[in-house]
# Entry
Amino acid sequence: MKTAIWLYLFLFLAVFDLHAQYPILTPFAISLGAAPTFIGWMMGIYSLTHLPGNLIAGTQIDKHGSRRYIVFSLLGAGFILLLQAHVHTPWQLLALRSISGFVLAFLSPACLALLAQLSSDPVKQGKYMSGHGVVHTLASVVSPAAGAIIVGSMGFSATFSSLGYLLLLTGVIAFMTMPRGLVQQPERVTEPAKPEPSPATSTKTFIPVSWRYFALPLVIACAQGILFFELPLRGGGHSSMMSTGLLFSIISIGALFTLSMLFLNRYSPKLRLVAGVLLMSLSFFVMAAIPQIPLSTVLFVLGMSKGIIFPAMATLFIRLSGGSKLGRIFSLQSIATSIGSFIGPITAGQLRVGLSPYFIAFVLLMIGMLLLPYYTSRREASLSDPKSILH
# Structure
């Protein structure tokens, strides 16, 4: 539990630092002379450079543990933010964002794998994933508005510098406090003559996960990339950073609302995932087709869907894989997320004149939900909740 508390603290500081940039990156790029199409590529390249990092993280986290990769991501991202405070052209910002994408590719799979390794009990693992979602959401509630306030009082350069020093400090603390040696042990072969091991001592067997499950994080990330691209460009890019930051905070408040409903963890992760994606897709449809509904209300509902989706998705991947090779599983999830985050902003930047990007997000989410396997194999079903309605 002590390790989980430390990890939650580091996650809070890291997420606060990163999400504080959401409402200020687009105005900063515009101040450097970047066009909306270029901004879409800038946001997309950040996700594209996640891919090599995710591929490396997949096997290395299982082999060496999560500690070194958490520290590397935090220190590397902090140093890049210090350099970002001194850029003068859009191309310099693009280069630094691409490097930052590679460095931060290790953070999410390393943190999720470490949390999952803290317990072999599926119920406790679900609680750890919900705790991860709560901490992530708490940080993202205050960070966008805080980033806008800091920029208003200190300017872009001082804001990036302060955020960079915060990440560097977090990385140093993580290096001093993160436990060593939490590495998944290789599978053992039991002799036939021996009796079956008890559940407490049985080894975890890796179960390959169907590629169709990874279609969901891809389309969800694509939809989020579209949203993060569109919100700062409301009113032709002249919306204030404070109003944009408050809208991002409203999304996080909605996520926190559903994350606080702990009774949801008693239901099948697949059922929760389907319900959350359906709610998110309907939110995008309303933004595209019914603009009369206040945007803050729709974003609150969209945030509620995020609070349902992400803990359920992490729990589902743990159970489908048999709880083994979690670094590889979460790196594959991160790869799908990176591809979606790359496609989303670029698609919005290219098609936003003739077609509402929110409608594109709605269609993609519905396609992803249809691709989700609704009938699992026996091996997968044995690892799922007995309350599952979709098995």
Summary: Residues 183-205, 377-391 have pLDDT under 50 and may be disordered. The chain is about 70% helix and 0% strand.
